[in-house]
Design brief:
two-stranded antiparallel ribbon, Fumarate Reductase Iron-sulfur Protein, Chain B, domain 2, 7 strands, alpha+beta
């Protein structure tokens, strides 16, 4: 690779322009350079007008999600050397309205996340949840069943790569659905029926066609496609005649009783 990098940035201001255009910048290449480093050089040294998001620079905040050479990535995590090209093209994520240049509007993304109640619900002891006096315990095996989904940093890359999200604005998206599974599988949660109802709809979990692109682009190794398929299994089990009979014999929302219930609360 040469010592100079050609950085092509998609520029677009919807308030004054009719469509996007590309602007090219010559950026000095150095060992260890990331795509974010190249963008910051172009913004600081060549064009102060480039609009972009970034924060932690360590693949933890998810702010710098964008398309790099056509693939959704985190700019701070993507090494220029790994791209094996002297030309790098950066564009805003797909499936989101463009605010300006590389910045997209994530309001609907976070609204869909919040719409599936991403938090523990405790009906049996709400006061304890608000003012805890102890811990809600679980076994290592119970934690393993959903722990990977807690690694989500809400970067939006999975939703930007999802073909269903591109055609159905009411589809919650892989991020929100994977988080719905995360809390459904958590043995400390007591809102099973409400969670199943929230995803069992025409635009819900059944709109996923298992393309798998969401899992392929996740920078944290989360597998949203797997979470969605497991979520479908929960819905089918609860909606089957056997599942409904079991539900009637239970109280509350305990459709899938926890065999280690007595271990959940510490003294």
């Amino acid at each position: 690779m040469g010592k100079e990098l050609s950085l092509k940035v998609q520029r677009f201001d919807p308030s004054v322009e009719k469509g996007p255009r590309f602007q090219e910048y010559a950026v000095p290449w150095k060992d260890g350079m990331t795509v974010l480093d190249a963008l910051l050089y172009a913004r600081d040294k060549l064009d102060h007008g480039i609009a972009m998001r970034f924060s932690c620079r360590m693949a933890s905040c998810g702010s710098c999600g964008m398309k790099v050479n056509g693939r959704p990535r985190l700019a701070c995590e993507t090494q220029v050397a790994d791209l094996r090209s002297e030309t790098i093209t950066v564009q805003p994520m797909d499936n989101f309205p463009v605010v300006r240049d590389l910045v997209v509007d994530l309001e609907s993304f976070f609204a869909k996340h919040a719409g599936l109640s991403p938090g523990l619900a405790r009906k049996s002891d709400p006061q304890e949840q608000e003012s805890p006096t102890g811990e809600y315990l679980m076994t290592p095996k119970e934690l393993d069943s959903f722990v990977q989904f807690t690694y989500c940093i809400k970067c939006g890359l999975c939703s930007s790569s999802c073909p269903t999200s591109s055609t159905d604005s009411l589809f919650p998206g892989p991020q929100a659905l994977a988080q719905a599974y995360r809390f459904l599988e958590d043995v400390r949660d007591e809102a099973t029926e409400e969670r199943l109802d929230s995803v069992d709809s025409q635009h819900g979990v059944w709109r996923c066609h298992f393309a798998g692109t969401c899992s392929a682009v996740c920078p944290k190794g989360v597998d949203p496609a797997l979470g969605i398929q497991l979520l479908k299994r929960h819905v089918m089990a609860a909606r089957s005649p056997l599942g409904r009979r079991k539900a009637k014999r239970k109280t509350g929302t305990e459709l899938f009783p926890n065999p280690n219930k007595d271990l959940l609360k510490s003294p």
